[in-house]
Design a protein that fits this description.
single chain
């Protein structure tokens, strides 16, 4: 009886984790460290001083299939990346306007 209960909990947690991954896919910022061939991936727009390297354009990678269940989340997430990117730019020099004109989406992980 206890074994079946434990198995049911494990299956439930696994299904929940899969649903979470489908509805909230991983999005990351891609960039290059200036003067090197080193590339980095950041989960956060604040790149500990490396954000200068990917000023133009902003390159984002979506690392899961796009479907009806996650389009709203992806739209909100991409807009949040852009807003945080522009806020970082405004903190540097409030008199200047953001020069962000392009957002490049790397969809190499998206199938179909």
């Amino acid at each position: 009886m206890i074994d079946k209960f434990g198995l049911a909990i494990a299956v439930g947690i696994s299904i929940f984790k899969i649903l979470l991954q489908v509805t909230r896919p991983k999005t990351v910022m891609l960039g290059n460290i200036p003067g090197t061939n080193i590339q980095y991936i950041s989960q956060s727009p604040s790149l500990q001083g490396w954000y200068e390297s990917s000023r133009l354009p902003l390159i984002l990678s979506i690392e899961a299939p796009i479907n009806f269940a996650n389009t709203t989340y992806l739209n909100e997430r991409i807009l949040r990346w852009v807003e945080e990117y522009e806020a970082e730019y405004a903190e540097e020099d409030p008199k200047k306007h953001s020069t962000l004109r392009f957002v490049v989406l790397d969809l190499s992980a998206v199938l179909e």
